[in-house]
Amino acid sequence: MVRLLSFIYPITKKVKSEFNGTLEITWYNGKKHLNTKNANYSYGSLQKILKTGLQKINLSNCNNVLILGFGGGSVIKTLRKDFSYQNTITAIEIDPVVIKIAKEEFNVSKFNNLEIICDDAFKFAEKNDRQFDLIIVDLFIDTEIPSSFYQISFWENIIKACSSKSSILFNASLDSKNDHEIVNIASFLFKNKFQIERLDKVNNTNTLLIAKR
Ligand SMILES: C[S@@+](CC[C@H](N)C(=O)[O-])C[C@H]1O[C@@H](n2cnc3c(N)ncnc32)[C@H](O)[C@@H]1O
User: How far apart are CA 121 and CA 19, in angstroms?
Assistant: First the structure.
């Protein structure tokens, strides 16, 4: 019923979160989305944006994926359904309210081989000693990427977490912001023997950085 009504007008449930302010679970045109006050977090334009990035990456030899910024888990649905990727996924999310929403509203528990860790991605990257074939960095608070994720010290830890055949997909900004920081990170990754591709205005909004070994 809610799904049908959502074709006529959007139906929204609001949930308060310490990290993300007011989160909105919105039924719109028969589909459920996770939004903040000013941004789509999951299952809307964000999902399309990450899919565009993933289309540039060869997942056939990929054995494990790290996702920094789990949100409602829409990229997991994309990996499993659109790319038939069935191997291990480790997802890091700072906000326990977001994880609860992902489980209760978006049923992410149905996905096999998925480990969800509630932690700050910056701290996780500092102490992590595992290596991954694909790392997706999708860390936003509303429309902003916290400044620590533009620091080179964070990217040094990301490189340590890369296997010898690793790719990185960085959802690097909204509305062409932070160009200087993105150029700096691209140059750092290039110096560390990654091939770099930058996609601007993906879905008319986001900048994606793709790095491949
Ligand atoms: C755009 S959403 C992620 C969407 C998700 N990748 C998907 O596919 O649906 C950004 C997420 O980053 C999380 N986040 C922001 N800062 C973080 C941090 N320091 N550590 C871990 N997660 C963080 C937010 O709580 C939010 O859930």
Answer: 13
Q: Which atom of ligand 1 is nearest to the CA of 95?
A: 25
Examine residue 22 and state whether it is found in any structural domain, yes or no. no
Domain membership flag for residue 35: no
Shortest-distance atom of ligand 1 to CA 40: 1
Q: How far is the CA of 94 from the centre of ligand 1 (A)?
A: 7
pLDDT digits (tens, 9 = 90+) for 11-40: 899 999 999 999 999 998 889 999 999 999
Cα 140 to ligand 1 centroid, rounded to whole Å: 5
pLDDT in tens, 138-147: 999 999 999 9
Query: Whole-model pTM?
Result: 0.97
CATH number of the CATH domain containing 108: 3.40.50.150
Could you list the residue range(s) of the whole structural domain that residue 73 is in? 45-212
Whether 13 maps to a domain, the answer reads: no
Ligand 1 contact, 25 CB (< 6 A): no
Quote the number of domains for the chain: 1
Q: Any idea which residue has 């941004």 for tokens?
A: 39
CB atoms within 10 A of CB 29: 10
**Cβ contacts of 147 within 8 Å, gap of 6 or more:** none
Q: Which atom of ligand 1 is nearest to the CA of 122?
A: 19
